[in-house]
Amino acid sequence: MTNNPTITELSHEDRTFPPPEEFAANANATAEEYDKAAADRIGYWEEQAKRITWDTPFDTVLDWSDKPNAQWYVGGKLNAAYNCVDRHVENGLGDRVAYYFEGESGDTRTITYSDLLREVSKAANALTELGVKTGDRVAIYMPMIPETVFAMLACARLGAPHTVIFGGFSASAIADRVKDCGVEFVITSDGGYRKGKPSGLKSVVDEAMVDCPEVRNVLVVRRTGQDVDWKEGRDLWWHDVVDRQSETHTPEAFDSEHPLYIMYSSGTTGKPKGILHTTGGYLVGTSFTHWTVFDIKPESDVYWTAADIGWVTGHSYIVYGPLANATTSVLYEGTPDTPHRGRWWEIVEKYKVSILYCAPTAIRSFMKWGRDIPAKFDLSSLRLLGSVGEPINPEAWMWYREHIGGGRCPVVDTWWQTENGSILISPLPGVTSTKPGSAMRPLPGIVADVFDDEGRSVEPGNGGYLVIKEPWPSMLRTLWGDEERFEKTYWSQYPEVYFAGDGAKIDRDGDFWVLGRVDDVLNVSGHRMSTAEIESALVAHPKVAEAAVVGARDEMTGQAIEAFVILRESAADGGDDVVSELRSHVRSSIGPIATPRSIMLVPDLPKTRSGKIMRRLLKDVAENREVGDVTTLADSSVMDLIQKGIAES
Ligand code: PRX
User: Of 193, 236, 304, 458, whose CB is crowded by the most CB atoms within 10 A?
Assistant: First the structure.
């Protein structure tokens, strides 16, 4: 077991917000769902599978005989892209808008379901022409543009699992992922717009490809028009290859357990984990939760997940969930403050967004910028607000409710993880009376609990480790190429129970409060990173002898990265230059999101007699607290030295 959960003492939250009557009267979800699922969980999941069109019906809902390897909807066959696109067109919804695309620089595109079918079919034909076959992995490193969705769905159509790499990751992060899952085909773009400037993406891929000779082709979408280097024979323009393809393509049905995608996420060691999601269960999980938690009324809602497709939130709630439910979504390329701090609210007003889903870190930025900014826009179209990615502090929750939701919109704080595939703990709008800061209850069909060290459920009012006691359809199936790590990470703490790695508390009403990671995983602005990953990057620098990284509390980003570094003797007294050199080194080895907030040069690190770094003590320093118990340190004077050094610097 890892560190004890950091249970911040929560006084009981007495503010509750019952669902508005009108909302409750028309809500997709009802309170009976909980009873139905509790009475017959497997039957409930069988029922939910009807949201999907199966080419061949499944014969068994769940096969859990080879624990922890679950198989859902066994014997069923389906095509994910068909479910997201073709069937809606066949049902007469071809003219419905799938996406309102808003480029950061103000360019727009409206893509109907018929348009989507055409574009995805052409892309699938192009991939086939280029030799991509069922089972081949395809890496996608793109900005937030419609072609990213076309590329993902084209892969799904062919049964070629995609691995989307967040556009902020560095060349070496791309190379690691490409090599880990044996990618031979990469889709990217010349760049995207970020903070008013074109960013380079193809150039980063080029750098990564130096290390990836097995990649045959790089297909490049022209977005910014900037100059790019070109490797003849390997690089191809999307418009040259895709535009000339036939607009029809017949999708093939794949086994329910056929891999749909791999999404890399940080774990407790340096190497990111390739989290594998398969087709049937994932699609059921995303469409069910999107329907129930977001109360989707596809004929009238305009839905907006303001996240990046490069993270699981984008996969499940920009692409697969909304499309499976024939929803109209907004797809926004850029940042919330470009060209001005009201950009999101301008978009809400322009497209009459009715449901908004975003991360607490964004809400905290808006709070800092002031309520006057959203007040200038007409936000009356909003009817539901969602939060994801990190604990939402009650002040941010209240601000979101009041200043964005006008006091009338239910707020759903949704807890889940890349591994979960879809939301597991959340209020049901129209049913649940919410409390600011609580994700409230496991969804119908989800059996979550909070365990103590011995695997016993904690009493109400107590904290422990968040676990899921029964399998669920959209759960990860394994870690790509590393079944052992899959079993060890999630299934070894408690037998046959999924260990989420989060600390949680159940209050005296039985509601869940997720408190954050209990392992060496950081959560910066809702993005997961491991201390080990950043430490490895630092230690790879020739001037660094040793490094320790901790996550310190940060008002805006939730946690911030604080690094403690011992320099090699040859580099000692390097001063500020070394610090900025190391910060940019981490930036270029992992990506800007991993840049430490500060780097403290220290003479030594606190270690136990067995040599384990005591990050808890460094966290005390980083959070400006009195340093805790040092008796287990091999050398108890180390902390004095560190603090003295910091005070003098
Ligand atoms: O610590 C939890 C936090 O984010 C982690 C999962 O990160 P990731 O796999 O990147 O997925 C993020 C988006 C689904 C969790 O282990 N987390 C996510 N949502 C919440 C949360 N913590 C508290 N409350 C949430 N609503």
Answer: 304
Q: Is the CB of 359 under 6 A from ligand 1?
A: no
Global pTM?
A: 0.93
Average pLDDT of the segment spanning 531-542: 91
Our answer on whether the CB atom of 434 is closer than 6 Å to any ligand 1 atom is no
**Rounded to an integer, what distance in angstroms lies between the CA atom of residue 79 and that of residue 491?**
30
Average pLDDT score over residue span 290-303: 98
517 pocket-lining for ligand 1 (C-beta < 6 Å): yes
Extract the tokens encoding 611.
């040599």
CA of 91 to the centre of ligand 1 (A): 36
* Residue whose CA is at the smallest distance from ligand 1 atom 4: 389
Q: Is the CB of 388 under 6 A from ligand 1?
A: yes
DSSP state of 195: T
* In contact, 157 and 132? CB cutoff 8 Å: no
Any ligand 1 atom below 6 A from CB of 314: no
CA distances from 343 to 301, 340, 366, 463, 556 (A): 20, 6, 11, 39, 19
Residue 544 neighbours by CB distance under 10 Å: 22
Q: What is the pLDDT of residue 8?
A: 43
Weakest-pLDDT range from 8-17, 290-299, 437-446, 489-498: 8-17
pLDDT recorded at residue 11: 53
Using the mean position of ligand 1's atoms as its centre, give its distance from the Cα of residue 197 in Å.
Answer: 30
Which of 528, 529, 530 is the pocket-test mutation for ligand 1 (most atoms within 8 Å of CB)?
528
- Ligand 1 binding pocket includes 528 (Cβ within 6 Å): yes
624: how many CB neighbours lie within 10 A of its CB? 8
What pLDDT, on the 0 to 100 scale, is given for residue 649? 66
Report the nearest atom of ligand 1 relative to the CA of 387. Answer: 26
Nearest to 546 by CA among 647, 648, 638, 643: 638
Q: DSSP labels for 80-140?
A: HHIIIIIHHHHTT-TTSEEEEEE-TTS-EEEEEHHHHHHHHHHHHHHHHHTT--TT--EEE
pLDDT at 4 over 70: no
Paired residues of 355 in beta bridges: 303, 384
Kindly give the distance from the C-alpha atom of residue 642 to the centroid of ligand 1, in angstroms, as a whole number: 32
pLDDT at residue 270 in the model: 72
Asked if pLDDT for residue 9 goes beyond 60, the answer is: no
Query: What does the pLDDT average to over 158-178?
Result: 96
Provide mean pLDDT across the span 62-74.
98
Residue 440: half-sphere exposure toward Cβ, Cα within 13 Å: 22
Mean pLDDT, residues 41-70 taken together: 98
Would the pLDDT of 631 be above 90?
Answer: no
Q: Is the CB of 414 under 6 A from ligand 1?
A: yes
Over residues 4-15, mean pLDDT = 56
Among the atoms of ligand 1, which is closest to the Cα of residue 528?
10
Say how many Å lie between the first and final Cα of the chain, rounded: 36
What is the pLDDT at residue 2? 38
pLDDT, residue 476, reads 98
DSSP one-letter string for 147-184: HHHHHHHHHHHHT--EEE--TT--HHHHHHHHHHTT--
Q: How far is the CA of 209 from the centre of ligand 1 (A)?
A: 32
Atom of ligand 1 nearest to the CA of 516: 1
Q: CB of 514 closer than 6 A to ligand 1?
A: yes
pLDDT tens figures, 276-290: 999 999 999 999 999
DSSP 514-565: EEEESSSEEEETTEEEEHHHHHHHHHTSTTEEEEEEEEEEETTTEEEEEEEE
